Amino acid sequence: MRVRLEDVARATGVSPKTVSRVLNEEPSVKEATxxxxxxxxxxxxYRPSLAARGLAGSRSFLVAMLYDNNDNPxxxxxxxxxxxxxxxxxxxxxxxMVCPLRLRGQDFLRRVDALVADHHVDGVVxxxxxxxxxxxxxxxxxxxxxxxxxxxxRHKDVVGVFMDEQKAANDLVTHLIGLGHRRIAHxxxxxxxxxxxxxxxxxxAALTAAGLSVDPQYIVxxxxxxxxxxxxxxxxxxxxxRPTAIFAANDDMxxxxxxxxxxxxxxxxxxxxxxxxxxxxxxxxxxxSLTTVRQPSREMxxxxxxxxxxxxxxxxxxxxxxxxxxxxxxxxxxxxPD
Length: 338
Known about the structure:
It is a single chain. This protein is an alpha/beta fold. It has 3 domains: 5-48, 434 Repressor (Amino-terminal Domain), CATH 1.10.260; 62-163 and 297-324, Rossmann fold; 165-295, Response regulator (Rossmann fold, 3-Layer(aba) Sandwich), CATH 3.40.50. The protein is 44% helix and 14% strand. The protein has helices spanning 5-12, 16-23, 31-43, 50-56, 76-91, 108-119, 134-143, 165-179, 194-209, 226-237, 251-263, 282-285, 297-312; strands at residues 62-67, 95-100, 123-126, 146-150, 160-162, 184-188, 219-221, 245-248, 273-275, 292-294, 320-322, 326-328. The longest helix has 16 residues, at 76-91. The radius of gyration is 24 Å and the shape is elongated. The N and C termini lie far apart (74 Å). The relative contact order is 0.13.
């Protein structure tokens, strides 16, 4: 039989109202009582009814994660963000829904209106490039819907999480320069992503700091997908002085570059050094393993949702959290050929 809230109250010797306050994480409950009730819920396998909780208050206990499905919907990056959002939701007994939102469509604001009206979400987590769409942000404010942003371009009056991607890209390209590379190419991500701009800016800054010129023929547009990495690499390999190193703006494109290098008989890293960005599981599954920047995407999803729930639960206004990155130097980069 389903364990009821009253059963937990009876087992712990407190009132049903106190159990409800623990469920809603109200600050008026003594910590010792809170821990006793939580322990009883765990041992009794109590699962609160979200419908009943919603009827008892003004919240739906539902968070929506929005992503642009013109982006790569199967990307590891989005999957890890989603896992992090789910981690935070489960920790606070919230449900989660994942919603694609095509910014290039004409009706995306209508779809936001329908999402709020139909599901009464307590808040939304926005992923790039939704994080910087002014129309979307304005509509959420009009509707009074709390929202948190992952990797927003603008940091003023924003709740969410970000990483210094420009500095990380700078460090990565500086690593290539330190190995002796001078002809370093860059495969850019989707044009309207803040991440693409930051990573390209870091690439250029590293070259300039080393006294190297920024050659436009070594900067090729990609799209954060394996296929776009293949297309970009084929273009770069036709140059009279092909690059000795390629920095792709994410791991998927770096994998496409490595595949194309192998296709024409170039050995990585003997003939060509390759590095990516994000440190997705693919980075260690490739051969040779990929030098990249570890962006803790799952943790970013969790922290952004944590800040969102701080607002929703009235624990504060939420804030913008900066998270550190790590340079992962692996076997795909080495000194250039003589």
